[in-house]
Amino acid sequence: MAWEDDIQLSEGICGSSPYIAPEEFSQSSFDPRGVDIWSCGVIYMAMRTGRQLWKLADAKKDEFFQEYLVKRKDATGYEPIESLKRARCRNVIYSILDPKPERRINGKQILNSEWGREIKAYLNPLQA
């Protein structure tokens, strides 16, 4: 909750298959904040590419996710992310979709990134 200072770990698998973070499959408890960041990255990529990147973020069960894990480390990268025009954006998306939750970027880091600072938010929709 917003008024709490302590992290409340989550347990179990929750959510729709393409949006579930890898740690939900491999850890008995996990920090839900990183899970939400992961889901936002999957949603962003679905909006940008018009398709899901994978069905399930479990390399043992999904060949597309296995391909992502291999190609994200390759010099040429993972094509759907590499198709994003701006390097600043690609770097943040790779950090959002880092399969290791302890390395995954957090919300504050996203907003403070070069890419995040370029995002304009309007309080009044008439300003857009």
TrEMBL record:
<keyword id="KW-0547">Nucleotide-binding</keyword>
<dbReference type="GO" id="GO:0005829">
    <property type="term" value="C:cytosol"/>
</dbReference>
<keyword id="KW-0067">ATP-binding</keyword>
<dbReference type="InterPro" id="IPR011009">
    <property type="entry name" value="Kinase-like_dom_sf"/>
</dbReference>
<dbReference type="Pfam" id="PF00069">
    <property type="entry name" value="Pkinase"/>
</dbReference>
<dbReference type="GO" id="GO:0030003">
    <property type="term" value="P:intracellular monoatomic cation homeostasis"/>
</dbReference>
<keyword id="KW-0723">Serine/threonine-protein kinase</keyword>
<keyword id="KW-0808">Transferase</keyword>
<dbReference type="GO" id="GO:0004674">
    <property type="term" value="F:protein serine/threonine kinase activity"/>
</dbReference>
<protein>
    <recommendedName>
        <fullName>non-specific serine/threonine protein kinase</fullName>
        <ecNumber>2.7.11.1</ecNumber>
    </recommendedName>
</protein>
<keyword id="KW-0418">Kinase</keyword>
<dbReference type="GO" id="GO:0005524">
    <property type="term" value="F:ATP binding"/>
</dbReference>
<dbReference type="InterPro" id="IPR000719">
    <property type="entry name" value="Prot_kinase_dom"/>
</dbReference>
<feature type="domain" description="Protein kinase">
    <location>
        <begin position="1"/>
        <end position="123"/>
    </location>
</feature>
